[in-house]
Amino acid sequence: MSDWMALFEAALPVLLQGAAHTLLFALVAMVLGLALGLAVAMVRVARLPVLSQLAAFYVSAMRGTPLLVQIFVIYYGLPGVGLELDPVPAGVLALTLNVAAYLSESLRGGIAGVAKGQWEAAFSLGFTWWQTMRHIIAPQALRLSVPSLSNSLISLIKDTSLVSVITVTELMLATKEVIAQTFQPLPLYLAAAAIYWALSALFERLQRHVENRLNLAHQR
């Protein structure tokens, strides 16, 4: 056990640096994915000709194929058509496109959860469809979608481990590099798992805090 403690102490700075990169990738992909997911959800709800069909195909393709395959397509496949990306942009792009598909469905469900009378009341006051969505429906849909959005972020934190296959230095790749030097896979993989768990638990607490604040604001 003392050997493990010494190993953890030596490896901790490298693992924490990898965890910081993991968190950064997850947050950037989440922000970009939320913006894209909201746009996709609104296009599908509005049932815009052609665009809604394209949005539905995008969501189906992203949700129906493994993230690892999507990473390979973007990093190794796109250079074949003249578009070459460095590992970090390729990883962020893959994570963003993947999580946006799931977020769009969460947001679409949140929009569907808003009472139909809200639409009717807004239209009776002279609001347009987009004004109703922006000022009345979307804020309520976001509140309803907080649990599923938070779950997507927690899943995204774990999914960042897949970008290590294209040499993006995050927690998993940092762990593998330390293992290559120490030949101690079990304690180091356990340490990485503990860090992922801690990050997930942190965002679970943040999720509950946000839910409580939104519920209090809604009751006032």
From TrEMBL:
UniProt keyword list: Amino-acid transport, Cell membrane, Membrane, Transmembrane, Transmembrane helix, Transport
Keyword Transport: yes
Subcellular locations according to the entry: Cell inner membrane; Cell membrane
Membrane topology designation: Multi-pass membrane protein
InterPro entries for this protein: AA_ABC_transptr_permease_3TM, ArtM/GltK/GlnP/TcyL/YhdX-like, MetI-like, MetI-like_sf
Transmembrane residue ranges: 20-43, 55-78, 186-203
Pfam families named among the record's database cross-references: BPD_transp_1
Domain ABC transmembrane type-1: from-to ranges: 19-207
Main location: membrane
Keyword NADP carried by entry: no
NCBIfam families (UniProt xref): HEQRo_perm_3TM
Family of this protein: Belongs to the binding-protein-dependent transport system permease family. HisMQ subfamily.
Protein name per UniProt: Amino acid ABC transporter permease
Classification of source organism: Bacteria, Pseudomonadati, Pseudomonadota, Betaproteobacteria, Neisseriales
